[in-house]
Every structure is written in structure tokens, then in C-alpha cells.
Design goal:
2 copies of one chain form a homodimer. Chain A has 3 domains: 266 residues, Beta-galactosidase, Chain A, domain 5 (Distorted Sandwich), CATH 2.70.98.10; 200 residues, Aldolase class I (TIM Barrel, Alpha-Beta Barrel); 207 residues, TIM Barrel (Alpha-Beta Barrel), CATH 3.20.20.70. Helix content of chain A is 18%, strand content 33%. Chain A is built from 14 helices and 37 strands. In chain A, strands 6, 7, 8, 9, 12, 13, 15, 16, 20 and 21 form a 10-stranded antiparallel β-sheet that branches. In chain A, strands 1-2-3-4-11-18-17-14 form an 8-stranded antiparallel β-sheet. The first copy, chain A, has a 7-stranded parallel β-sheet with strand order 27-26-25-24-23-22-28. In chain A, helix 6 packs parallel to helix 7 and helix 8 packs parallel to helix 9. Chain A is globular and about 70 Å long. Chain A starts with a helix and ends with a strand. In chain A, 54% of the residues are buried.
């Protein structure tokens, strides 16, 4: 009896071994093991420096129309491969990115579906794991419907998690920091009111999902290359500390429609024992495809101002021109009833163009220039904007010429109100209109519930729409900055004219209830893992009661923290969001915004802890200039900057923009100091930051004359 | 006590009278009474020649977002108006149409919604009633969602009804004739298999709904001017003989999204004690808006042949070029695996062009010319066709030139597979492609389930799509013949380039199970009340076993009945659907198809009974030529044609195409006689028709020489 048992065990072990495969990361820190369960379910597990990160976790796709890809698999082939290359992004945080991984490609077939196979491709980098499901073209598999994806992430314990609730329509929630086990009791409180929200009714959180283990390991779960598939949220099992994929459904409850050759997006797990490594990870970009465009010369990072913040704070102006409550696109704009409070007037836009020209901004965004703003909101209205009909007080040609004469670009605004058929129908005409009038960048908006009704912002249908718009825009050499779109997954590598996105709770919410002082220390670890954010920083007048429009609202940062955002919140498209007149009140601080680069040769994350602080240094692209930003949450902290990224043996002038000693986000937010010092590669700055404050540093070459009298740091 | 009661009664009567309004038709045959119930519910009732047709029936709209328009109404205004004008359609059954009605416009407000009002507009013609709900622009009503419409049609008894089941996606059912009370027991049997069907789960039938009362009154219920609203089906209460509106929902279950100034389509009730009057009614056209187009010179009725019927019967050819099961629009068509059975080859198309040129047809339709047919069906595939990429054996330029040299137009085919976003995205490019290659008409197809998923063929979203396509096509001077679109409601008056539709079970089903011999006697009373049908008649080779492709299938008519269809099935776009070689076998009968007009000065319905027979005479537009068609169901009958429509005192030559005495649809369908006789305005033809047969007559002027030896009828 014992013998037979032993034999049985041996056989089990044997079968177990055949179906198991192990790869390590190039630096050997990571080990990923693929194996099948006795039922033939694919699983993977991940260790980092010999500690388990992801315990054995199942993989599978439930389908309609064809048998599911869940169990009964055998491994019919495996391939391993190693890659170590570099590539240059069109724009980015680094001039050169290393793509270094070991790959395992497992081919799986089911006993009862022998003529059919799928693949799972794992890529193990020095900063983590990416894997995806692949459905090769084959005789017996062409079309199928994804009913659900069952990808598990079995965590090793009750980690700390920085989370927002899963929602099919919006990412604009405030973050909650808690243990995984605490999610259930906090989820309702975390579900703050956001327009058009559709919170997922199972316990779930959004990706990028940032976690920290009790022993100091940082884990980030997200996805890369979200194309022709719905966005993934994560179901949370708060007892077993298991996360699992939750795909966004379509109008009839299906998740996706695939045609072979097809693949899912990559599921990504970035891991390190240093938080700074998480922010320096380029794993998600590496898992995206190189750009599809042959000519990218027209894609240029830029800094802009806009007719925008005054709509939130100044109380004097509105997007809408008229007071009418019922507007049709066939209406004559001249017959609207003017409110006298319209923001996008010729005069106001010219004022902004003048300011942009004077201070070296590339562009001026103008929102509220086109008919439809009177009744665009909340009516689920299909023919809501036409994108080509200006209000009577916005003279397209006159402003085009004026901007041109000042060497400034106007930036278009296309609020779609999520009426997507309407937008797609008018897209060619809208883009032609832009090019005819000198616009080469557009901010798109997707406020509200989607039309076609029943679809969601995060569903496969909309995912394909955003890419359609990006590609169509590229045909016209137009750059896109999308707001309220699905959160990014590194697709800006493939579509570099999709230059930035919002897809999170940004600065506008400082005027609508405020952002927690730790918000911007979490974003780089969450939302921004997927790509640049048009966070619209630069608010100098943080106390909004200044505008006498009632309430006691404030932007919950110091002025200096707003400067630091230009470095900590990476984007090739940066707004100086405050009103021009506020910048004119603080010209010395404004100088940092004027100076700071928007494209970089290198990035060095100096120090970071999600929810607490982030300090980053970057080298301006093609220039011997460096910029440093440090931010802290509600606690005063000292930022440490090591200037060892500077060329050795040379002195530079550092201009340090610092919170004054008695500054804080809620008291004295506008008290700051600016000092110039000499720095070299051995310099270290220890700079106190106020509660809710930060520090910003520019480093430039200086003549001997400039250096004269400057102290060392 | 009695006094108080009397007073109360008097008050009630008074209030009753105030809220009641009566109008009559211009000829006084109809009386329509509007009144409010004690609960303030709007109602109407209709009598014809003093007989009730519609008993008191409620009207109302249930809404979301705003209080419903169901009850609590008072009449705040009424207006009456009389109209008697004529107008000329761009093309049609008559050169001049009289528009003669008395109108009642009732304005209604609710006590608890005093600042809000709606209107109900009734137009009472000599052929029936049209009414609609109107929502004027006003301060307190701009946007609302239609949750449902509650329009009742309370019938006076258990009428005979010619019906197909209510279905959100398809009209391609076979008709059932029964009493209303019998619908429940027959509905499952009536629900035959139709691709992509979504039978309504309440007991319901489609419109146009044709009924006949026990005392010989004919009643047709449909709608006119279906714009920006879902199509209406009719719920059936088989005990109370009550029909009520059942609107097609959208993906989230709502029925419609309206912005004031808005109105529903007209609900139409055409009534007569003569069946022929129903077919001569122009009420639905009169309730549509005049054309929106300034230039209509490019819109021309036409007769065409096509590479089409062989896909159904001949067994030799297919739409698809390749045998591949997985095709992408990015694939190189030259890399497809040819089946050798492709129908739309250069050679075959040229053969058709030659035939069309030889016999005077305007155009040749070619289906299966473009990549995608390999896997277009049943996969709910989004990127299914691009409408611009031909198969390798279809040379667009060569065929364009060949057709041009022969004076024949090619007709484009755009099967969308109901992938509507895909079609809209490619529409401009597709229409440009057409114009560049000399096409000015397109047959569109909507086979399958709609994408965006969850929408239906008959919903508001798709209703708007079809009109969008018609308007966009007009921009390119392109005519549209839509298949599988929502059934027509007279919109061809407004959009005369939307020249025909299928939207019913047409000739193709003769090759897929057959059509009942009474089918074509019902269609003019049902589907065709809304507009012309591309029925694709003209099948000479009715016994399909002829093709030796297996089965014992047949077209369930005689050859002559197929000729008669060119008159009984009104359409400005008529196909000669059979294979050219079959026409060459019967050149004498084919002459009728070559001769028959497709546009008319006048129409005289000679005799008709739904389900039994239809005989119609028409005068060719601008010509002294007349054509007569008569059809019968499975029973042999004698058609009676009174030639009193001919100018008095003049003799003409009538060519009579008749079933042979021993002909019948199932035996000897191809036996016919052709004889020429002299006719004048006093002539009467009594022509026997075979079971499933018909009669066709052409009447032309003739020289004395031609007339010589001809007998009188």
C-alpha cells in the first residue's frame, strides 16, 4: 500500500514538474514559476529576493460561444527568451530606456479541445513581471466573447493599500490608505460623489493599485497596452488578501469581443524594496509597442496657460455664453441670450495670448469657445457640441492671427460630454477646422454618461474610441490631451501624440472640495504609473476666499509645492493653471514655472514614500539644466537632494524655491524664500518643507560673474 | 338631495363638455372626439360613417427625469384648422397628391405642473386619422427621457388581423392571418427563425398592422415620420381587443431621449369600407415633411439587375472570395485563399453589364465585391467591412470604364453587418469612393445584431442612424436602398434619395423556405403602407430544383405573378432579380419587365383584399403608357380590370401576360400566354389567374398598322 502511494506521489510530482516552468529576472532578484494545478489550471507565482510576492495564483479566461480557457490544460510547448535592448522615446522622463527581461512563453491546450491552443507570455524584468494571454490565429479559434477574466494576484498578507474604488466610468476619486482587510468598512465612505460614477458593486479597487507590505516591499499592479479590451479593475478578497481581475462590461454585460490573433493587455506587477524604484520603473512602457507613426517631428512637449481656472474660482466667467437652457446646434449663436459672464471672449483670450507671449509659454487653452455649453451637462444629450461653431464673442480668425503674430499657439478644446457617436461623426470636420485655424493640440473631455448608452468610459468600446481619436488626430498632426478617458497604460509610447491625460482627481478638485495634502504623493505611485497626467498645477492663489465668491475653499498646498509639481508630476504637457494676474503678483516664484523643462534626458527619484513625500530630480532634454521638485503631505519634512547626477568637477547655480519657515498649506501658503547657491556633484541639499509644502530647485550653468558671491549649498 | 345631485351632474357634464372636442373629416365620414377622463387623462375616439372604429382610448407618455404626461390634465387651449392643398412628390405612385384634412390642436397642462404644457395634434383626413404628441420649447421643459408611450387603440371587436410578431430587430417574419383573440395561441408558431431576431416578450405585433372587422371595415394602424424616436410595435390585449403602443427600447431599457421642441411620430389609422382605399391612401406621406433637399435632379427611379440571386440558388457562386475563416481588413486581399466560386468577378459583372445594356436596365448591383465576406456573419464583428477594398478579381476601375462604355451604372453594395460605428466611421470615405468610381446608388444592409451592442434595429439610435446615412448620402448625391433597416414611415417624402427599403420578408426567402402564396397580397396592406419595397421580383425560374443544388425548393408563384409584382409592389427601384440566362429563355415574357415603368403619374387600385388578391393599374410618368398587375393567393381567381382610366375615345394596344389555363404556382408555373388586344376607356378585362398566379398588362399607343387585326378585349 505504501509503495503504491509512493508511486502515486512520484507520478504526481513528475506530472507537476513537467507542467512547471521557472524563470528569473536578469538580475536574479525575481523568480517567476508557472505551473498547472492537478485540474490543469494555469498558475503563476512570484518571488523577489527570495520573498514571496504573489503566491500561487490562477489564470484563466471565461468565454462565450467557445469553451472557456479555464482548466483542463496541458503544456504543449514552452519557449524562453532573453532581451536586453534600449530605445528612445519620442518624449519622456529619460532619453534612453533599457528593455531587459527574460521571457517564458507557455503554449497550452485542453484535452477536450485538442485542436485549439492559447499562450501565456511572461516577461520578467528587474523591476517586475508582465504577463498576458495570447490567442493565436488557428483553425479552431477565430472569434470569441470574453465573459470574464479570472486572473488572480494572491498576496502574502494584509498589505497597506492606496486605493480608490472600482468604477466603470470614473477615476476621479480621492485616495484612501488602509490595510486590505479594512477596504470593506471604508468603501462606502470612499465612494464620494463623482459625476456619472458607476461604482462596481463587488468589493473592488482600481489600478494602478499601490501596496506596501509589512516588511517594506512595494508592489504595484496595473496593466500595459490596453488595446481592444476593457480596463481591468481588481476585486478584493479582504480575508484571503486575494486580488482578481474585474473587467469593465459593455452594454449587454459582456467584457470583450476578440478575433484571433489576439491578446489581452499585459498584467503588470512592479515590485521593489525601494519606493523610488517603483517611480523609476519603465516596465509598463517597455511592454507597449513602439510608435506606429513614421513622422513624429510634429509631436512636441509644451507648456501652456489657459482660460480655465477662472471658471472654477474667479466667479466672473463661465464656459457658457448664454443663459439659455435649451440650445440646439442649429441655433444661431447670435440669438443666444448673453449672460455677460462669458470667459472665452476675444478680449480675454488676447490678454492670455499676450501673457503667454511675454512669458514664453507655447500655447493658450481656451475652453468655452463653442456653442453648446448652456445645456451640455447632465442631459445625456447626443447632439451637444459641433466643435466648429464659435460663440459670437470668440472670433476664430481674429484670434488665430493675433496668436500667430505673438508666436503663441491656441490650444483647442473638445468637450464631448461623452456623446461619442456625435464626436466621431464630427471628428474629421473638427480636426480640419483646427488645422485650418492653426491649432495643433486639443484637450478632449468625456464628462458624463457615455452615448451609446450603456457603454462605460472603461469598456472595450471606449478604449477603442480613444485610440481611434489618437490615430485620427495623428493623421492631422494633432496632439491629444484627454480628460475623463480611461486611465493610461503606457500607450503614449505607441501613440506619442496622445501626449497626456487627466484620468484622476486633478487640480480642478482643489476648487471643488479640495484635495488631501497627501494626494499628490500618492498619484505618482498610482495613476501616473500608466502615463503622464495633465494635473494642471501652478496655483499661486491657493486661498480661494480671495475671490470673494463665497465659501472658504482653498487649494491644500503651499505655493512652493505647486512649483514642485512641475517636476514630481511628470508630463510633457504642463499647464500654468492660475490666472495671469496671480503670476504677476509673484514674478520671482513664477520664474521657476517659466524655466522648468517639459521634456527630459534623465530622471533620478531622490526619495519617495507613497502618501508621505516624493522628491525627484530631472535633467532637461538636450540642455545642461536640472530641475528638482520635492513635496510632502500634511507633515513638515526635510527633503534631501543629492546632486550626484551633476557632471563631476563643475559648479552650477542652484536656485532654491523653499517654503518659508512659518509657511503651511493652511496658513501662510504663499510665504516662500528663493535663494541661489553653488552646487556640484558632491552637494547635498537638506531642505525643510512646510506642512503641505515642497521645494523646487533649478540648476543651471552660470558665468563666473553670476557665481560671484554665491555660497555653497 | 336630488337638487344637489342634479347640480353635481350638471357640473360634471359641463366640465366634460369643456374638455371635449370633436372634429370631422372634410367629407364628414370620420368623426374624431377628444376628451379628458375625470382623472384628466387624454382620450380620443374615432368613428367612420357613424360606426365606431376606435372606442375611447387613452393617450399618454410616461417619462423619466420629469413628471409623466399621463393624467391630471386640463385643456388650456384648442385650435382648429383646415387644409386642402396638393403637392408633387419627387417620384411616386401619383404625380400630384392631395393633402386635405381638418386639424385639432389641443394644449394640455397639469394642475400640479402648471408652468408646463404639451400638445396633441390630430389631423383627420378623408382616409383616416393621424395624431402626435408635441412638446413645445418652454421654460420648464427642455429634456426628458421617454420611459414608455401609452397610446391605446381600443378596437370594437375581435377583428381579423394580418400580423407578424413584434420584434426589436427584424421585420422578416411570415404573416399570420387570424382573429385578434387567436394571436396568443398562434404567436409561438408565428415566431419562425429569423437571424438576429429579438421577439418582444409581451404579446405584440408589428405595424403597419392591417385589420378587417366582421362588418367589412378595413383598419390600418402605423406611424408616419419616424424621426428621433423608436419604432412603435403594438401590444395586443386579446380579450379587450385593445392595441397599445410598445416602443423599442435602447441598450439601457429607455425608449427615447427628447429635447423640446419635440414631437413623436404621427400615429396613423387609415380606415375604409373598401380595401382599395387603403392602398390608395396617401395619409402617411401627407403627414411627412416636404423634402429637405433643394436640388433633387439627381434622384431618379431606376430598374436594375444584379449579381445576387445566384448566391441564393445557383450553387455556383458566393459573396466571399476566399475560404478563409478569419479575415482582417488589414489583410492583403491577394493573400486570401480563393474558393474559385466567387460571384463578383470581372467576367461575371461584365456579363451582367452587357445584359443590362442590351435590355435597357439602368444599373447592375454587385454584391460580394469587397473584402470581409469570409467571416462577416454571426461573429458580432466590429471591423467587418471597409467598403473600399475590392477582392482581387473585382477590378473597380476596369468595371467602372466598362459600365460607362455601355451606358450602364454599377450599383454599390454596403453590407454593414449591423456594425454601425464601423460604417459611420467609414461613411465619408465609402461615399467618396463611390463617386470617384461612378456609383450613384447603394444598397445598404443591416444583417445581424447591432454594434453598439444592446441597441436594436428599431430603436431611436438606429432610427437616427438611417436618417444620418440618407442625409450624408444626399451630400454626395447618392441614393440609398436600405435592407434590414427599420420599416418605412413615409420618410421618402422628406429624404427622397432614401429611395427604397426591404424591411420585410422579400424574394430572398423564396430561396430560403419559400413565401406563402398570399404573402404578396398582404404586403401592400402592411409593410408597404410605409413606403416602397425593394422586393426584388422577376424570378422566372421558380422551380429551384432546376439548379441541381439539392432540395426541392421553389418560388411559390407562377411566372406571370412575378411580372405582376412590378405593378402591385410599388417601388421606384425595381430589380429584375433572376439570372440573365433565365430571362433569355423567356424573351417574350421578359419584355414586360423591360417595358414596365418605375415612376407613375397615377395609380388606380382596381380590386384588393388582403390575403387574397390585389389588382392595380398605373400610368407611367410622363408617358401615355399604362401597366396593370394583378395577383392572387393560392386560389385561382379572375382579375377584373376596368380601363376607364384611359383617355376617352381613343384605342390602345394592351398586351396581356396571363397564366396558362393549366398553370399554377406549384405545377406549371412557367406556362403563360401573351396576347395583344385593343382597349379603350370602356374596356373591361376579366382575366383568370392561376392558383398562386397573376396577370400583367401593358397598354401603349399603337399605329393603325399595329392595331390591324387586333381584337377588342
Amino acid at each position: 500500500m505504501m509503495r503504491r502511494l509512493a508511486l502515486l506521489l512520484l507520478l504526481c510530482t513528475f506530472s507537476f514538474l513537467v507542467n512547471a516552468q521557472v524563470i528569473t529576472s536578469p538580475d536574479k532578484n525575481f523568480t517567476m514559476k508557472f505551473e498547472l494545478t492537478p485540474k490543469g489550471e494555469p498558475t503563476y507565482q512570484l518571488t523577489y529576493k527570495k520573498k514571496p510576492v504573489i503566491k500561487q495564483s490562477k489564470l484563466g479566461i471565461k468565454t462565450q460561444d467557445v469553451p472557456s480557457f479555464m482548466e483542463g490544460f496541458t503544456v504543449t510547448d514552452t519557449k524562453q527568451n532573453s532581451v536586453d535592448t534600449t530605445w528612445e522615446p519620442i518624449w519622456g522622463e529619460e532619453k534612453t530606456i533599457r528593455n531587459n527581461y527574460n521571457e517564458l512563453l507557455v503554449t497550452l491546450a485542453q484535452k477536450d479541445q485538442k485542436d485549439r491552443h492559447i499562450r501565456i507570455r511572461f516577461r520578467l524584468f528587474n523591476d517586475g513581471l508582465g504577463f498576458r494571454y495570447e490567442f493565436p490565429e488557428q483553425d479552431n479559434l477565430s472569434y470569441f466573447i470574453v465573459e470574464d477574466e479570472h486572473t488572480e494576484f494572491n498576496l502574502t498578507g494584509d498589505h497597506k493599500i492606496y486605493w480608490i474604488r472600482g468604477d466603470y466610468n470614473t477615476n476621479e476619486y480621492a485616495y484612501t490608505t488602509s490595510q486590505i482587510s479594512e477596504v470593506p468598512k471604508l468603501i462606502e465612505k470612499a465612494t464620494i460623489d463623482v459625476h456619472a460614477q458607476v461604482p462596481i458593486d463587488t468589493l473592488s479597487v482600481q489600478t494602478p493599485s499601490m501596496m506596501k507590505t509589512a516588511d517594506g516591499l512595494y508592489i504595484n499592479i496595473h496593466e500595459a497596452a490596453l488595446v481592444n479590451y476593457p480596463a481591468m479593475h481588481l476585486n478584493v478578497d479582504p480575508k484571503n488578501f486575494r486580488l482578481s481581475s474585474h473587467l469593465t462590461p459593455d452594454a449587454v454585460g459582456n467584457k470583450g469581443y476578440l478575433q484571433t490573433d489576439a491578446q489581452t493587455p499585459w498584467r503588470t506587477i512592479v515590485v521593489s524594496d525601494k519606493a523610488t524604484d517603483i517611480l523609476e520603473s519603465r516596465l509598463i512602457l517597455n511592454l507597449n509597442e513602439p510608435t506606429k507613426y513614421e513622422d513624429v517631428s510634429w509631436i512636441k512637449p509644451l507648456k501652456y496657460i489657459g482660460v480655465w481656472w477662472e471658471y472654477f474660482v474667479a466667479g466672473k466667467s463661465t464656459w457658457a455664453y448664454g443663459t439659455d437652457k435649451n440650445v440646439k446646434l442649429t441655433d444661431d449663436p447670435n440669438k443666444l441670450t448673453p449672460s455677460g459672464r462669458h470667459g472665452a471672449t476675444n478680449e480675454n483670450v488676447k490678454k492670455h495670448i499676450d501673457f503667454a507671449a511675454k512669458h514664453g509659454f507655447d500655447a493658450v487653452l481656451v475652453e468655452g469657445w463653442n456653442i453648446g455649453w448652456e445645456d451640455w451637462f447632465g442631459n445625456w444629450k447626443e447632439d451637444v457640441f459641433d466643435f466648429v461653431t464659435p460663440y459670437p464673442d470668440f472670433n476664430v480668425k481674429e484670434l488665430e492671427q493675433y496668436a500667430k503674430s505673438k508666436g503663441v499657439k491656441l490650444m483647442m478644446h473638445h468637450e464631448t460630454s461623452s456623446s461619442v457617436r456625435n464626436y466621431e461623426r464630427r471628428l474629421d470636420e473638427a480636426f480640419k477646422f483646427m488645422k485650418e485655424h492653426g491649432y495643433d493640440a486639443v484637450k478632449t473631455g468625456y464628462v458624463g454618461k457615455i452615448i451609446p448608452r450603456g457603454e462605460y468610459h472603461d469598456g472595450q468600446w471606449m478604449v477603442n474610441h480613444y485610440i481611434y481619436v489618437a490615430e485620427k488626430a495623428a493623421d492631422y498632426k494633432i496632439m491629444i490631451n484627454s480628460h475623463e478617458a480611461v486611465r493610461p497604460t503606457g500607450l503614449h509610447r505607441t501613440y506619442p501624440n496622445w501626449i497626456a491625460q487627466e484620468s484622476a482627481r486633478g487640480t480642478e478638485f482643489e476648487a471643488m472640495g479640495g484635495l488631501a495634502p497627501d494626494h499628490a504623493t500618492i498619484l505618482p505611485f498610482t495613476r501616473m504609473m500608466g502615463g503622464p497626467m495633465d494635473y494642471t498645477p501652478g496655483i499661486f492663489q491657493t486661498d480661494l476666499s480671495y475671490y470673494n465668491t463665497g465659501g472658504n475653499q482653498r487649494v491644500n498646498t503651499t505655493l512652493v509645492k505647486q512649483l514642485a509639481y512641475y517636476v514630481t508630476m511628470y508630463s510633457p504637457l504642463q499647464m500654468a493653471a492660475d490666472l495671469p494676474e496671480n503670476y504677476e503678483r509673484f514674478p520671482d516664484a513664477f520664474q521657476f514655472i517659466k524655466d522648468v523643462a517639459v521634456d527630459w534626458d534623465n530622471t533620478w527619484v531622490q526619495e519617495a514614500e507613497p502618501g508621505d513625500y516624493v522628491t525627484i530630480a530631472r535633467k532637461a532634454k538636450g540642455k545642461d539644466e536640472w530641475y528638482v521638485g520635492g513635496i510632502t503631505d500634511e507633515k513638515a519634512r526635510t527633503a534631501t537632494v543629492r546632486f550626484d547626477f551633476l557632471p563631476k568637477g563643475k559648479e552650477y547655480i542652484a536656485t532654491i524655491y523653499a517654503d518659508a519657515t512659518d509657511a503651511s498649506w493652511d496658513k501662510n501658503p504663499q510665504k516662500y524664500t528663493i535663494r541661489k547657491v553653488k552646487v556640484n556633484s558632491k552637494s547635498v541639499l537638506k531642505q525643510p518643507m512646510a506642512p503641505g509644502g515642497g521645494v523646487a530647485v533649478s540648476v543651471k550653468e552660470g558665468s563666473k560673474q553670476d557665481m560671484k558671491g554665491l555660497k555653497k549649498i
